[in-house]
Each structure stands twice: as C-alpha cells, then as structure tokens.
C-alpha cells in the first residue's frame, strides 16, 4: 500500500468502486465472487528490512460467495463500498460507530452489521484490498482524547480555514487536540529536542504541571491508553520530518509494552499501515521491570492473564530482542507489575527531576 500521501476524494472513490467492479467482473466471467485478505495474526507478521517495519506475510484467507457466511460478508462489503462512495461524493464524513448504526437503514437485513467489531473489521479489510486508508474514506474513530504539549508551532487545515497554533502558548493546560487526520497539519517551527509519548493522563498532567516540556524542550504527547492511529501517525511525522528522537513512557505491565509496540513496530491488525504509522527507532524509557527492583516501587502481583500476555510477548516477533527478553523474563521472575504513578512514592517531583532526566541521559537523548 502506498501510504506516503493522502488521496483526494475522487481518487479514493475510484479505487473503492474498482473493488466493487471486480466482484461484478467475477460474476460476468462465471466465477464465484471472492476477496483475498492477509491473515491478521502475529504468526503472519514479518520484518521488512528495507522499510524497517513489521508487515503481513504471504498467508491469506479468502472471502468467497461459495458459502452463506462468505456471501453475506461480500454483500456487506458491497453495501459499505456504496455508502463510502456516496459519502466521498458528497464530501461528508462519519464515525466508525455511525457506520454500524447506519447499516440498520439498509434495505437488506443480511447486509446489516451484527456488531461494531464486524463493521470495524470490514473497514480494515477494505483498506487492505482497495489500498485506500480509512482517513481517505472520510471515516473517523471516536475521539481518542490524545493531546500535545510542547514547543511546536503548526498550521492546521480546518473547514473554517487554516489556523496557526503554538502547542504551549496558544493552548491551555489540556494541550493541543490531535485531529483525526494529522496529515492536515503542517509543521512550521519547533524548539524541541525530543518527543515523549506518555501512556496515562495522570502522568501527562504531572509532567506538564512540573514544566517538563519547558525545562527539557520536550514535545509531550498523551497516548490516551492504546494510541489511536492519528496519534501514531503524528509521532511518526515528528520523528521523520522534525528529526526528533521518540521515547515512550508507559506502565510496567505487558499491556503497556504492547502500547509501546504499536508505536514502534505497528499493531497486528494494522500491519498493512506500518510504514505509515510505525516509528521503528522509538525507544522504551519505562516503567521497566528493572525499575521495579532498583527503585523498590509499589507493585501489584501479576495476574494469570498478565503472565499469559508476557509469555505470548516472548514469542511475538516484535519483542524478540535482547532488551525485551531480559525485561520480560525478569518480570516473570519477580511476578510483579507497577504503574507510572508509583514513582510518586519517592515524591511528586521525582519523575521529572530524577527518573526521566537520568534515563534520557543513559539513552543519549539528552
């Protein structure tokens, strides 16, 4: 998939309609309509050395009208393509949630979605086979709540015209809200030395309150938990276009390591967009299992699901490095996990005065 630039409405519409035309051509030639989709599992993830990202391998599955289930999936795909093509023609947009409910108005019950997961997965399928990103479909997720605070001046395109925003001087304590499509942003100027992507809102607020973005010339990006695509895209653009190192600061548990993994390596479900979303040289600054031991942090015991997730990560190609193998094995040994906010046990300023500066120097970021 070509992901370096966004398509205009007409180009995106044409590529969608070409996909629907393929179904028609298969009918006309006497073939059973079908759609081939890469298998979206970690066993089908491969490292692309040229692009330095994780992508889907050669394994795939076929959606075919030979079965009732397959025929319904192709029917739903056709109705969705029609909806998206009309949306683009009218220069409108909708959310993934709205698409799920909109399907209830379609004239065939068999074309309607049973769950939002079903409609979400179909949009991802259409992205892959049409080579059109959902942002170019004018499909939006629900608000992610992700914000930016730091010495960055940008220009944002809006329906009301362009506006220039400084992500410290022109925003309140909440910061600058990342738009659904960050490719509408133009970077004008910055005085930053690095990007710090932070998992939790509480830690992001602590850093801003303590003036970390000012003192260390840092662009602080709140990930809002599992980061939305728009957040990952903006981080990648700041890395590539502003030449800023990226570090990820998250909780010390297996689910947070996956948050880091989605920023650095891409997620399994969107591996077709890794080149567009992933920042391969992003570094993990903490919380690390070694921090739990070194700083004697307050902890919680690992649950059975935590242990299973850690063991799964040891088999995940995105985590098969010496660093991650050491950290995960140590965590399985101590049987503990810890949150970012646990650093407050050493004082509210410890994270900004000691922990982060020390680690950033060790990582040669400062």
TrEMBL record:
What protein does this entry describe? Type 2 DNA topoisomerase 6 subunit A
Report residues binding Mg(2+): 199, 251
Question: Any idea where the Type II DNA topoisomerase VI subunit A all-beta domain is?
Answer: 142-191
Domain of life, per lineage: Archaea
Which prosthetic group or cofactor does it need? Mg(2+)
Q: How does it assemble?
A: Homodimer. Heterotetramer of two Top6A and two Top6B chains.
One Gene Ontology cellular component annotation? chromosome
What gene makes this protein? top6A
The answer, when asked if Isomerase is one of the entry's keywords, is yes
């Amino acid at each position: 998939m070509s992901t370096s630039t966004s398509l205009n409405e007409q180009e995106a519409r044409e590529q969608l309609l070409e996909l629907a035309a393929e179904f028609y051509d298969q009918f006309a030639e006497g073939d059973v309509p079908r759609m081939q989709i890469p298998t979206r599992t970690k066993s089908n993830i491969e490292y692309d050395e040229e692009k330095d990202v994780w992508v889907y391998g050669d394994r795939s599955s076929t959606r075919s009208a030979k079965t009732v289930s397959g025929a319904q999936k192709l029917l739903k795909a056709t109705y969705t393509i029609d909806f998206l093509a009309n949306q683009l023609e009218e220069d409108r947009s909708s959310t993934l949630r709205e698409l799920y409910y909109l399907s209830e108005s379609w004239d065939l019950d068999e074309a309607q979605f049973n769950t939002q997961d079903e409609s979400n997965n179909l949009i991802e399928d259409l992205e892959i086979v049409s080579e059109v990103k959902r942002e170019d479909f004018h499909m939006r997720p629900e608000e992610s709540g992700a914000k930016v605070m730091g010495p960055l001046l940008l220009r944002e395109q809006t329906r009301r015209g362009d506006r220039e925003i400084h992500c410290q001087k022109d925003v309140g304590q909440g910061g600058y809200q990342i738009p659904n499509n960050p490719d509408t942003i133009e970077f004008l100027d910055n005085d930053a030395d690095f990007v710090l992507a932070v998992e939790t809102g509480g830690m992001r607020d602590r850093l801003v309150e303590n003036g970390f973005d000012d003192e260390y010339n840092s662009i602080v990006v709140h990930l809002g938990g599992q980061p939305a695509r728009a957040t990952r895209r903006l981080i990648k653009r700041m890395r590539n276009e502003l030449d800023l190192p990226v570090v990820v600061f998250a909780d010390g548990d297996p689910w947070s390591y996956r948050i880091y993994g989605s920023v650095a390596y891409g997620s399994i479900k969107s591996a077709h967009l890794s080149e567009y979303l992933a920042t391969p040289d992003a570094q993990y600054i903490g919380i690390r299992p070694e921090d739990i031991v070194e700083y004697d942090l307050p902890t919680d015991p690992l649950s059975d699901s935590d242990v299973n997730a850690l063991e799964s990560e040891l088999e995940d190609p995105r985590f098969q490095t010496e660093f991650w193998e050491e950290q995960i094995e140590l965590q399985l040994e101590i049987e503990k996990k810890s949150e970012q906010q646990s650093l407050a046990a050493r004082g509210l300023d410890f994270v900004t005065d000691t922990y982060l500066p020390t680690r950033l120097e060790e990582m040669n970021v400062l």
